[in-house]
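Quick entry, no commentary yet.
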Amino acid sequence: MTRIAHLGLAAALLGPAVVAAQNPKTQPRTHTPQPTSAAITPADLKTRLYIFAADSMEGRETGTRGHIKATNYIDAELKKLGLKPMGDDGTFFQTVPVIRRSLDPSSTLTAGDVVLKAGTDFVAVGGRGGTGGGAGGATAPVTVFIASDSTASTYSLTLANKQAGWGQFLADYFTTQVKVSNQAIGGRTSRRFINEGRLTTILNAMKPGDYLMVQFGTNDGNTTATYDDGEPYLVSTTDFQMYMNMYVDGVRGKQGIPILVTPPPRATCTGDSHTFGNGLAGYSMAMKTVAAAKDVALIDLNAATLDYVQMIGCVAAKADFYLVGDGTHFQQNGARLMAGFVADGVVALSLPLAAYRLP
């Protein structure tokens, strides 16, 4: 389901600045965001317009990640203006179903006695010139396993429960030939996940060509918590690299493809700042070190998430990205966006899995 923002809302929020921005001779191409306020001022309107029109909003097409980014931003700014929401479920928006259709990769066409196979003999081209979802030769089913903590875990999706993990939305970005087996579980460190036999369980189920996405660090840096058996959460970045090597070697031993995913940052910000701390940078760097040393694919979810929350600012991030009152976990909007960041990372790496990515 996708939230649709009426143009009237965006116009009210951005309109007075649009005219000024239409003249490229008087307006710079970029603008450093400044904190906004409830009072509507020319400076505020300029900041809002530049953020809404930024390339990072990815065109804002309905049903895409860019559209979610744009509506999240509008939502946060309208709340700041003190407007009363009149949309669905207490929001400013109306939720409508958006359906994406793609070619079944097992499809065939028959011309006389000749049978043509999708992805081999023909491809489907969308109305805008794009390729049909994953038909470019990606026909074999594949499984993507996820080894991680609560930031990627699967939660029940209800109106009462707002928490979600990015792993539960990853499948939405790929064709049905991709099965996502989300083995992420809350409270686990890179070491504990292995010691509990969870990596072994994944490896026993893995087939050649399957993937394992590994994301840890959120709990590994906890200096005070311990498990019931007395084992501390804390894993040094040096030991963390050792455990990352164990994941990589285990997957490669099964002829699978390991992907390291850096941990998303916490909501370490104040006021309406657009500057966030990054307490998990050390574990992200440890993953990058392993990736470089062992030639492993790496998706920098830490950097992608940090870029996004710094763009929308602290108020918007805490209201509609992170779980309210919790700077570590995520709402459904945030988790869905991060799943998109991960899917985009797959494409950027040109992995075979990218052929299954939905347009």
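second:
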Amino acid sequence: MEIKQWGYVEPLKDMEEVYDFEREYNFQFPESYKNVIMEYNGGHPELEVCFDSSLNTGTALWMFLGFQKVRDTSDPINMWDHGLLDYSKYKDKLVAFAFDEKGWAICFYRDDKSIVIVDKYKDIIMFVARSFTSFMDGLYVYIDPDLN
């Protein structure tokens, strides 16, 4: 699914911040992710965009983490502060790139770049998609049945 309406976007001027992160943390992001983050860095979908995992359906995508080394006190959530999941026993296996509405981290699994989500309270991981492209293709807009 192509997300057409985004808020709080800070487009990257170039890919240097991404390349710096890749070098520092020894992780190569997929090109499909780099294409999205170049245009929608730190963005929040304007509509309630959801995805499904191996244990849950209808999980809302809240925001993509941004690549800003300089802290912006109005929105300090970025890859440098939150991409490595220091609180999780899986921190050496995952790189977070987004959060859902509960604050759970949506991550790349380092070994195969599949997409998983981490339940931060139980510290368990749930499979979401085989790739970033599959993740984006699997997004859908939630429509409240009570409003129809």
